[in-house]
Input
Amino acid sequence: MLDAYHTKAPDLQAELEEIKRERRELEKEKVKVRDERNEYRRLIREQARRESFLDLVGRVISEETESLTLDKELQIIRTDCDLLAHLTDIHTGIKIDNGFNRFDEEVLRRRLNRYLNKIISIRNTHHTENCYLVIGEILSGIIHNNMRLENNMDLIEQFKTVSELIALMIQGLAQHFTGIHIYVTPGNHSRISPKKEDSLDGENMDLLLPFYLSARLQNIKNVYIHENTKNPEIAMFNIRGHLVVATHGHKDNPNTVARDISMMYGKQPSIILLGHRHTNGYQTDSNVKVIQSGCISGSDSYATSIRKVNDPEQTVSVINDDGLDCIYDITLK
Output
């Protein structure tokens, strides 16, 4: 028996090790199945939310189907320069009434009309041919509790109000330029989820704007709505042979954005257009002109609470064959 024990013991130990190995493999398979199930549920959840978002697109656009037209016959002009106009940080829906600023739907309407007239005046001064309009962060949104308290419209009301005002503004511009080129750079205020970590790519109300404008302005033949093909948050286009890159700016530092964009795309832009910081600004970094535009809504309660007050303002730039010719610092108060 003793001899038999010494003969069989190694086999028994090997069997135990084999059982342990098989148990580990079984546990690994269980973890894989659980992870696959969780990933499947996540994909289904995201797909359902995206489908809901697409339904929202359809409803918003179908409620306003009448197309705008021009009041007069389009005149084709040929000159040696174009305009680059910024329309950013509109924050439609917020109501502000403090010692420094007042803002609501009617004030927004007046400021956009004033801005339209300023752009037309600059066009008449420089005899510019085309207008490149970059639009970003059109809504006040629901990203902060203080904004939710100050908002007097829900997201859909905010979107419908501002998209119609922008459409009317573009209609006015189209009567003075050979071509109007529209680009949208989504901002952080316009995401549909209050929590950044819960927000999915593409769930941003700013991304609805091109669909609405395409439907509303389809009969105005000199208006072109462009898609951001490289990245949905970054617009890239050429003006007179000069590369322009535009982002909202909430993911960019003005001091490093020229290097970051050049490294990211392997080519250096001539102009970078940013918003988000609610003030007009200009600097040059390695021959890249970094232009910041301000805020249409102006200083709200949060800005005043941290002692930051600034008039509503935007920038309009004149671009010719040599590049940036001049910048207009436009106050809209």
Observations:
- Residues 36 and 289 are 48 Å apart (CA to CA).
- The radius of gyration is 27 Å.
